[in-house]
Structure formats: structure tokens, C-alpha cells
Amino acid sequence: MRYDVAVVGAGLAGLQCAQLLGGNGLRVVLVDRKASVAAPVQTTGIFVRKTWEDFPLPDEQLGPGIRDVVLYSPSRRAIALRAKQDEFRIGRMGWLYLYLLEQCARAHVEWMPETRVIRCDARGLFTSRGRVDARFVVGADGARSLIAQQLGLDRNRELLVGIEEVVPPISRERVLHCFLDPELAPGYIAWLANDGEEAHLGVAGYRIGWDPAKALRAFRHTLPFPIGRAIEHRGGWIPVNGVLRNIANARGLVIGDAAGAVSPLTAGGLDGALRLTALAADVITSYLDRGDADVLREYSGARFHARFMARRWMRRAIRAVATPRLAEVAFTMLRTPPLRALAEHVFFSRGGSFPDVSVSAARSSRPAAAPAPSA
Ligand SMILES: Cc1cc2nc3c(=O)[nH]c(=O)nc-3n(C[C@H](O)[C@H](O)[C@H](O)COP(=O)(O)OP(=O)(O)OC[C@H]3O[C@@H](n4cnc5c(N)ncnc54)[C@H](O)[C@@H]3O)c2cc1C
Fold it and tell me: Ligand 1, atom 15: nearest CA belongs to which residue?
């Protein structure tokens, strides 16, 4: 069997891409080294309002809305921010991935779990289970993408590492607590996201000279409230260089973290994974229909570079805050009205995540194929 498209990686980007391409009538295979899409999960799964407003995510797999954010300095001075409406919802990611896999099955996508891709060439993939022939390859294989390397595309250079524990809720309050503390989380934040049903306790930072597991243990012990035992451990790499420039060629393209579709400032990648994937599915469908390589020019990271400029500068500023003393100074500045307004903008504005791309064009590229009868 020769597929039209082999999608490598069944995270949010790969699942969404396979579903859209299958819905467009292409023969699609979705390959992942994991045995189940539901485990292990790497992400906290905090979705921003813009994402759940623009994409049809199942409501029951998103936790209760959160509109309160509290920022803390290393000495635990606090700034409380409150949005007018719910701005964040924590996805029940294992369930959400299973839901998307079911949508893929309805779009006739073939699912190949426990299949590690070893390399790819002009014929398609070479995997731990043998060859998979495909006209086009999509790399949705995460921050350190093998497919990007195999296709000769750009690769992420600036990465954070993040780890977290899912723990029982600390209270019924729905709050995102963010700790700006370069000793706990150099270059990023430590977080406690509590939606009243579950809580996530995590740290992320630049790896050099920093031990994330030790930092997470230290973070747990500094908190003034008791934290229950971990129900689940998560973690992974987070690219923060912004979307890469060269992300497509005649053999394939990359999406999601593999394309650097993550905000360099907030390190959120779920919105970018869905948004860039919608464009990718549109471009792939036209390319395979018409065989015209010019179509691939639409899918260039250079289109988004200007939109990432300010976020990349803010990332540099955060990285420069390397000592607790500097963090205290930065925190004092955050209390001034203009910087407080900037913080509110970063956390609560619709424009704060990934640039809008031609989602509507992607949705209307071809009529969806009739769903398969469910088994
Ligand atoms: C600790 C942590 C917390 C985060 N929290 C948030 C958050 O709250 N909100 C937010 O917006 N973003 C968050 N992010 C970022 C977000 O999780 C990612 O941007 C997003 O999940 C990327 O999805 P993806 O589909 O591109 O990649 P992934 O979810 O990484 O999926 C890649 C898939 O490829 C598979 N794969 C890799 N290599 C191969 C191979 N050779 N062969 C076969 N399969 C392969 C993997 O098994 C995996 O299933 C967080 C990241 C981390 C690490």
C-alpha cells in the first residue's frame, strides 16, 4: 500500500493533521513510537481562550475555566491579575488525544502505534516495523525532530526543558500561580496550575547547569500549602526560538514543535500546533492535487518571523534575569502600571499566542469525506 501522506508523531499536531488530511480524502497513515496516544503525555495542557474559541475541541475534555493569575517574586511577593472572562482551561490530554484518534479513524486514517521512524527517503519512511511508502511525509515528531533533519529542513536551536507532576487539586480555587525565580526555573517560570479538579506542579528552564528534578522537589517544599502525591509525571523539551524559516520542501514538511510553532515568550505550543497544522493540511492537499511545488511556498516560516520578533526580544530579557536579586528588581518594575498592563496583555490578550494563519482556507479546502461507520 502506498499512502499519500505519512504523518510521524501522534501528539496534538500530528493527530490534527492526519484527521484534516484524511477528511480531505487523502490516504493517510499516522505513525508513533508510543503504544498509546494517551501515555506518556508531555504537556500541562493549558489551552488559551483563542484556541477553544477557534477550534472545535470537545468541551468535556477541557477543565473548568481559569481567570486568575498570581505572579510571585523569589521572596514570594505577589501580584494578582484577574481577567474579565475565563482565559485558560486545562485539557484532559490523554482523553483529548484519544478523542482525536477516534476522529482520525472516522476520516479513514490508518494508525500505526509502537512504530519508531528510523529514517526517511524519497519512497517514504523506514521504521522499526519495516518500510512505509508515502508520496509525502509530515514531521510532527516534536521539538527534536528527526524528520526535520532527514528532510534537510531547519531544526530548533533554543530549547527549554520542562517537567511536572499532576497532583490532586490544592483547593477549589481556579488559579494559575507563576513563580519568577531563576534558581527554580532559569529563563522561564515554575508553575502551579489549579482548576479545582486537578493541579499541575512544574518547572522549566534552560538545561545548562540546572537539574529540573531537583528544582521540582525544591519547589514542592517551598510552597505554603500541602501538595498531594504525584498522580502522573510529565515532561519534555520546549523549543523557544520561534517558528523556523525553512519548514517545507517537495518531500515533506514539519508542524507543531518540530516547526518551532511555540511562543518564545510563554512557551505555549498547543495553539501553534493547531493553527500551523490547519495551514499545512491545506497546502499539502493542494500540492498533492496539483503537483505544483509553488504551492509549498505558502508554507514558509519566514511568513511569521516578523510576528515573533517582539516575543523573541522578551525571551532574551527573561533569560537575562539570571539571579534572584535581578528577579526582585524586575518584579518591582512589574508593579508599575505600564508593565502590569504588559503582563495582562501577555496573559490575557487573544493576540498573545500564535499568529493567525489561513485557518478558514484550510477548513474549506475540500469537502470532508463521509465518516466511516463507527465499529
Ligand atoms: C512540561 C511541559 C508543559 C507544557 N505545557 C504547555 C501548556 O500548558 N500549554 C501549551 O500551550 N503548551 C505547553 N507545552 C508545549 C506543548 O506541549 C507542545 O508545544 C505541544 O504539545 C507540541 O505538540 P506536537 O504534536 O508538536 O509534539 P509532541 O506532543 O511532542 O508529539 C510528538 C510525537 O512524536 C512521536 N515521535 C517522536 N519521534 C518519533 C519517531 N522517531 N518515530 C515515531 N514517533 C516519534 C512522540 O512519541 C510524540 O507522540 C508544554 C511542554 C512541556 C514539555
Answer: 269
Q: Pick from 303, 311, 297, 298: which is nearest to 345 by CA?
A: 311
Does the CA dihedral 258-287-37-118 come out positive or negative? Answer: negative
Under CATH, what is the fold of the domain 2-363? FAD/NAD(P)-binding domain (3.50.50)
Q: Is the pLDDT of residue 121 over 70?
A: yes
Q: Residue-wise over 139-164: b if at least 16 C-beta within 10 A, else e?
A: bbbbbebbbbebbebbbbebbbbbbb
Distance of alpha carbon 108 from alpha carbon 106, whole angstroms: 5
If you measure from the C-alpha of residue 342 to the centroid of ligand 1, how many angstroms do you get, rounded to a whole number?
Answer: 28
144 in contact with ligand 1, CB cutoff 6 A: no
- pLDDT tens across 245-294, in order? 999 999 999 999 999 999 998 999 999 999 999 999 999 999 999 999 99
How far, in Å, is the centroid of ligand 1 from the Cα of 115?
A: 17
Element (H, E) at 307: helix 302-320
- CA dist 370 and 25 (Å) reads 9
Give, using CA atoms, the residue closest to atom 41 of ligand 1.
Answer: 117
22 lines ligand 1 (CB under 6 A): no
Distance (Å, whole) CA 68 – CA 48:
13
Domain boundaries of the chain, sorted by first residue: 2-363
260 lines ligand 1 (CB under 6 A): no
What is the model's pTM? 0.93
C-beta 9 within 6 A of ligand 1: yes
* Pocket flag, ligand 1, residue 8 (CB < 6 Å): yes
